[in-house]
Amino acid sequence: MLKFPPLPKTATAPFCPSEVRGTVALVQDVPFWKKLRRFAGPGLMIAVGYMDPGNWATDIQAGSQYGFQLLFVVLFSGLAAIVLQELALRLGIVTGRDLAQLTHDHTTGVLRAALWVAAEISIVATDLAEVLGCALALKLLFGLPLGWGVGLTACDTLLVLGLQGRGIRRVEAIILALVLSIALCFVVQLSLVTLDWHAIALGFVPRPSALGSHDALYAALGILGATVMPHNLYLHSSLIQTRSVGREVAALRDGLRLARADTVIALLLAIVVNAAILILAGAGFHESGHRNVSGIEDAYELLAPVTGVALAPILFGLGLFASGQSSTFTGTIAGQVLFEGFLERKIPCFQLRLITRGLALVPAWAGLAYWGEHAVGNMLVWSQVVLSLQLPFAMYPLIRFTSNSRIMGVFATRRPARLVSWGLFIAITAANLWLIVELCIS
To answer: What is the 3-state secondary structure (H, E, C) of 66-129?
Structure first.
């Protein structure tokens, strides 16, 4: 059995969580917006997980099949993400420990192992979406076969090596550039299609009847799993500790306000991007009669004839590649958070990255070999459904810890926040169980 050395109290490597905590100190006696400018970053790192290739696949499929009807699911998922990420940042700032570490501290035996395995499954499912998304982008832009593209995604470990010793702020700057690239690509693409703003506005109004069929619920759960990602809850509780906040009550409150503002702004951007993907699919495909667009590749092929502009699919492919690469960085750090927190052991980032990417390459190649390249869209959607199934396993300890005054002190969540959090937990768990039952009897 592999044995790893114990995690040292003070580490020296690049940008992994245990090595960058407290690296950005707040400056007092300056305006709030100046504090926020210095504090901002963790929210953006989290937001990229909400616009990865898995989101593209689920939003495109939902938009092409149901038009704008499921926009309220995108909005609900985004707002649920804001609620849960606020709990994660609160946990990290107040306790000085992340969700994985606290889960290790407060659970034992089979329960601890089960929660760790569930969290690792979410990492692999996320990485699978990144692998397939980047490979698909390489095929769309350069004609590279998907099998070769999947293999080339292993080379992104070189990106991790290249960032050794660069610090968290350098990583955040790269992420910002990639996110802005994704947003710009969709702004241009939306300008190329005719938009029915009245129908779009109605799409944001919740309609339970829109989820009446098995396929619609499946699409909605895919959107939910692609948006509220389990590993992001662990990641955020760790990344927020890269900001040095005093331990006094007033300093903690100040830190919480800044972290909350950073998160809300970043996740609102993610909601806009996800809505833009679904709106593009609804306006470009559903409204033009192309209602069976089941994957990203189909969307790429149809964009030029639908919009009448040859640049549209190129922008689409570039945005997809930027999406996959930005998620690679955060996936690497999330994997380190889980490994260090649950096992209290250390392994170099690039080695862990190779292990995680290897675990994602196997199902990617196996799926392509068994179902063929045309099944990439369904594989992406299923990876997001798996994330939805894993979500309650991360939500439960997070809600329990943040509600516990012995852990959180005066910063324990109050009754309204607890009711909302447990309501989300029950709703998501019930939807997952309903889907499992439906799949078993169908």
So the answer is: HCCCCHHHHHHHHHHHHHHHHHHHHHHHHHCCCHHHHHHHHCCHHHHHHHHHHHHHHHHHHHHH
> Helix, strand, coil: what percent of the chain each, to 5?
80, 0, 20
Q: How far apart are CA 246 and CA 182, in angstroms?
A: 36
Distance of CA 170 to the CA centre of its chain: 20
- Contact partners, residue 334, CB within 8 Å, separation at least 6: 123, 126, 231, 232, 234, 235
Distance in angstroms (rounded) separating the CA atoms of residues 386 and 226: 9
Joined together, the tokens standing for residue 286 give 């559903």
Where does residue 378 rank: exposed (0-12), middle (13-18), buried (19+ CB within 10 A)?
Answer: middle
Burial readout 131-144 (b: 16 or more C-beta within 10 A, e: otherwise)? bbbbbbbbbbbeeb
Q: What is the DSSP letter of 175?
A: H
Q: Cα(352)–Cα(37) distance, rounded to whole angstroms?
A: 32
CATH fourth-level superfamily of 17-441: Amino acid/polyamine transporter I (1.20.1740.10)
Interaxial angle between packed helices 53-66 and 376-403, expressed in degrees from 0 to 180 and rounded to the nearest 10: 110
Is the per-residue pLDDT at 13 higher than 50?
no
SS3 label, residue 366: helix
Q: How many CA atoms lie within 13 A of 419 on its CB side?
A: 3
pLDDT tens-place string over residues 175-186: 787 778 878 877
**CA–CA distance, 289 with 124 (Å, rounded to integer):** 36
User: Can you give the residue ranges of every domain in the chain?
Assistant: 17-441
User: Reduced to 3 states, what is the DSSP secondary structure of residue 41?
Assistant: coil
**Closest of 186, 164, 168, 165 to residue 176, by C-alpha:** 168
What counts of helices (H) and strands (E) characterise the chain? 19, 2
Q: Please list the residues that pair with 345 across neighbouring strands.
A: 6
* 250-268 core/surface letters (b: 16 or more CB in 10 A; e: else): eebebbbebbbbbbeebbe
Instruction: Give the SS3 label for residue 25.
Output: strand
For the entire predicted model, the pTM comes to: 0.82
pLDDT digits (tens, 9 = 90+) for 69-127: 889 988 988 898 899 999 999 999 999 899 999 999 998 889 999 999 888 888 888 87
- What CA–CA distances, in Å, run from 307 to 70, 194, 280, 411? 23, 9, 10, 51
